[in-house]
Predict the structure.
Amino acid sequence: MVPSDSASTTTTTQDPDPNPGSSSLIPKVITHYPRNSEDALAALNILKKWLPSELGLNILDHAEYWLLSRVYREDTLTYTSATGRDRIPYLESKPIQGSHFPVKKIVIDIWSHDQEFNYYFESGTDNYEDSPTWFEIGIQRPSGREDILRDLDAKIVDNVHGSAKTRHHRIVYCGLGGQPGGASVRWMRNLEAEDRVTVIPQARFLGWKNFVEAAAIGVYTDPL
C-alpha cells in the first residue's frame, strides 16, 4: 500500500452524562500500551523469535502500537474574533518526543457550540453552512524552524451554526493509509521533536462568540 495522508471527522451531540458518576465531559482513558519504548522493544523481540525484524516492525506499525502523549482541558471559555486574530489557543500539546519526524497520528476532541441564531444569516440554523465559529490547528515550533502550515487551510472543524447545544467533534489525522484525498494534512509528517500542536478557537464577526467547554489532544509517535 502506498502511504497517504488523511483526515477524518466524527460528530456527536454531547451526552449529558458521558461519564456516569462524573461531571466531566472528557471520557476516562484506560492505561495505554505501549507505555514507553521498552514495551515496544519487548513486543518486537517476541515477534523476532518467529519473524524477520522488518516484518515485526510492520506488524507493530499496522497495529498502531505507538506511544501516546495526551493532554486535556475542561474550562468553559468564550472566544471572539479578537482572540482568534491573536491566535490564542485553548489547548496545546506537550512537546513532541522521539526521533526525526516521529508523529504517526493526531486525535483532537473538542466539546463546543456556537451562540444562538442571528437573523443576519440566510442559511438557517442547526447546520454547518456559513458557521461563524470554528477551530484551527496551530503548530508551535522552536525558533528557526519553517512554518509547515504556511499557505495551507488550518481549519479543522466548524461549530454547528446557530446552535447552543454542545457537540463533540473528533478529528483524526493519520499519516499512513486511511481515507484518500487528505493531501492538506501532509504537514503532519514534517512535525519534529519539541514541536507542539495547538487548538485555536475562531469567530468571524465582532461580538460573535465561540463557546468552548473542553478539548483533548492525543499525539501518537513511533516508539522505536
